[in-house]
């Protein structure tokens, strides 16, 4: 379970970063009047759904040890 939890924590950190970047990109696209931010919205929704599922699985993990925290 420990390796799985480490993997889930890394995935969580990566997804969180990508969602933040996409949200910023979406705001920029909307700010300049882009005609097609729908693709970005769809990707963002998918990543948010995956992050939610990852959070559910992480609840089954013990708290991380100091050396397991994502950087």
From TrEMBL:
Superkingdom, natural source: Bacteria
Descriptive protein name: Uncharacterized protein
Organism of derivation: Ktedonosporobacter rubrisoli
Organism lineage string: Bacteria, Bacillati, Chloroflexota, Ktedonobacteria, Ktedonobacterales
